[in-house]
Write a structure and sequence with these properties.
Helix content is about 70%, strand content about 0%. By secondary structure, it is mainly alpha-helical. Strand 2 and strand 3 form a beta hairpin. The longest helix has about 35 residues.
């Protein structure tokens, strides 16, 4: 039976919630988009670019960072503006389609990133920046559809289920690539000991490069149900009028924001702890590589385990969100992250929490050392907390934001998630350089989580 939503009436949006098929189709957006983050920005293409396309790993990391920063700056500056225009125009799907197209085009162009060819670096980084802008803006407008899909008391479950579904999509895409497509140039075999499908050449790293087209095709296939079955907001006014009204509304919102203390405090808290979380994920593999000497197979397997933990964490967190409220879920997630990060800083190759253990034997079995297994457990805790932290954050935004300006506030939400995203990695790099210690560099993230938690405590739902 359809339920009437008072908030929906006030915002002049559909008063009846759609059928389960429409909600499930919306959830599959996360499944469709997640391989971009899993395959391209984290575990496969980014390391491939730094190691084999760029002149050397250091310059590769720098170039990738510059492209990421440029895309992040554009996302940060334009997200609130586009969100405001979308609120004024009413519809979300055209925006998702347009920016989804950028994602597909940019991702597919990554196939041409051949190893050892300096001439391909500028267009490859441009394609990466275009795809990054596409996926982030599409996510902003997809998030803004949430209030029309389920009653307010089920928003948390919807958000958590979306994140969990996305994690599963990322896991399956990573298994597909590592197990069947990307082979070692030395052995010519994949993680499963197979010859790569479609005759992909390991020497020219076609298994790594195929992640671009795979991401684009994956997105097209799995985002299609949302366009077919999930209802959109009704159109309000033509784009030109929406542009004028949207920009005027954004100016008004920014002027009112200092008076909305809870919203302003939450956006600031989100900016700080999101920076810490992104930095933790970005440097977790690097830290493990430096501590234990892990390579692609170990880091890829580690990523799969973290994603599995994140799937269960997001799903459970969604249920707790509806029962306890998103603020408590965010606070609990931050406490878990603080515990896990503190414990990781006390794990070394031959010690766990100051207790000496046998270091892993060179060439031994996967994760054979006790310290490696402890790192895996703590990493899974981080994965399990990261999912509900992000899912509950978008739920809390929905509870705080005016219902008729939801996309605009999701634009501000994206702004706070991107505008300072360079600070965490910059501090980690600077402190690591000055102290010559990876542990000292990672320890700075404790400050991010403590500060974010302290600000969150001042937010009233």
């Amino acid at each position: 039976m359809a339920v009437i939503a008072p908030e929906a009436i006030d915002a002049k949006i559909p008063q009846q919630y759609p059928r389960r098929a429409a909600v499930m189709s919306w959830i599959f957006f996360d499944w469709a988009a997640q391989p971009y983050f899993t395959l391209i920005t984290t575990f496969v293409f980014a390391p491939y670019f730094a190691g084999f396309v760029a002149p050397d790993p250091a310059s590769g990391q720098a170039l990738w960072g510059f492209a990421t920063g440029a895309a992040g700056l554009m996302i940060a500056l334009l997200s609130p503006v586009l969100g405001a225009i979308a609120d004024a125009s009413g519809r979300r799907k055209p925006w998702i389609a347009g920016f989804g197209t950028l994602l597909v085009i940019g991702a597919c162009l990554m196939w041409f990133g051949k190893p050892g060819d300096p001439g391909v670096i500028p267009p490859l980084l441009l394609a990466y920046a275009i795809a990054s802008v596409g996926v982030e803006f599409a996510t902003v407008f997809n998030n803004a559809m949430m209030p029309t899909l389920v009653p307010p008391d089920k928003i948390g479950r919807l958000s958590g289920t979306g994140w969990a579904t996305g994690y599963i999509g990322g896991i399956l895409s990573l298994i597909l690539v590592l197990g069947f497509l990307a082979a070692s140039p030395e052995t010519g075999r994949t993680l499963f000991g197979l010859a790569p499908l479609f005759g992909l050449d390991p020497v020219s790293h076609q298994g790594d490069r195929i992640t671009g087209p795979l991401t684009g095709i994956w997105f097209i296939i799995f985002v299609t149900p949302m366009f077919l079955f999930t209802p959109d907001y009704p159109a309000k006014r033509p784009i030109r009028e929406a542009l004028h009204e949207g920009l005027s509304g954004l100016k008004r919102t920014l002027g009112e924001l200092p008076k909305q203390k809870s919203m302003a405090t939450f956006l600031l808290a989100n900016m700080i702890y999101t920076d810490g979380l992104v930095s933790l994920f970005a440097f977790g593999g690097i830290y493990a590589a430096g501590t234990f000497g892990w390579h692609t197979i170990q880091i890829g397997t580690f990523g799969i385990l973290l994603a599995i933990a994140g799937t269960f964490g997001a799903w459970v967190g969604g249920k707790l969100d509806d029962k306890l409220g998103p603020k408590r879920v965010i606070a609990g997630s931050l406490l878990i992250l603080l515990f896990a990060l503190g414990a990781i800083l006390l794990v070394d190759k031959d010690s766990i929490l100051f207790v000496k253990v046998t270091p892993p034997a060179p060439g031994g079995a996967l994760f054979s050392g006790a310290a490696e297994r402890a790192y895996l457990v703590l990493g899974c805790l981080i994965g399990a907390a990261g999912g509900p932290l992000q899912a509950a954050s978008r739920t809390l935004l929905i509870r705080l934001a005016p219902k008729d300006r939801i996309a605009q506030y999701f634009g501000l939400f994206a702004l706070t998630g991107k505008v300072t995203s360079f600070i965490g990695p910059l501090l980690i790099g600077a402190i690591t350089y000055v102290t010559a210690s990876q542990k000292a560099g990672m320890a700075v993230l404790v400050v991010f989580f403590v500060a974010g938690l302290a600000l969150l405590m001042r937010v009233r739902e």
